[in-house]
Amino acid sequence: MDRQKWTDLVACQISGLTPCDFYLWGHMKQLVYSEPVNSIEELTARTAVAAETIREYQLYLVEFGLPRT
């Protein structure tokens, strides 16, 4: 098992976080910090926009994976 997968596995067990938690925060950080943030107001606005772009089905796919055919 590679280091990143092992680290994620241990973090999940220690903190009680789920794969959805890791996906959600990682994806939101990518959206929010795609460009430098210049003020707290801009950070707040970008966070709200990022939260609105994440759809429930995305979290479902992270949690349960794609159906096998």
Produce the secondary structure layout.
Elements: H1 3-15, H2 19-32, H3 40-53, H4 56-64
Helix pairs in contact: 2-3, 2-4
Outline the structure in words.
GO terms for molecular function: nucleic acid binding. InterPro entries: RNaseH_sf. With 69 residues, this protein is mainly α. It has helices at 3-15, 19-32, 40-53, 56-64. Helix 2 packs across helix 4. The longest helix has 14 residues, at 19-32. The two termini are 26 Å apart.
N-to-C SSE string, H for helix and E for strand: HHHH
Number of strands: 0
Structural classification: mainly alpha
Percentage of helical residues?
over 70%
Summed up, the helix count is 4
Mean pLDDT over the full residue set: 77
Main β sheet profile: none
Strand content: under 5%
Could you name the ranges where pLDDT drops below 50 across 5 or more consecutive residues? none
Q: Give the distance, in angstroms, between the N- and C-terminal Cα atoms.
A: 26 Å
In angstroms, what is the radius of gyration?
A: 15 Å
Q: Shape, please?
A: elongated
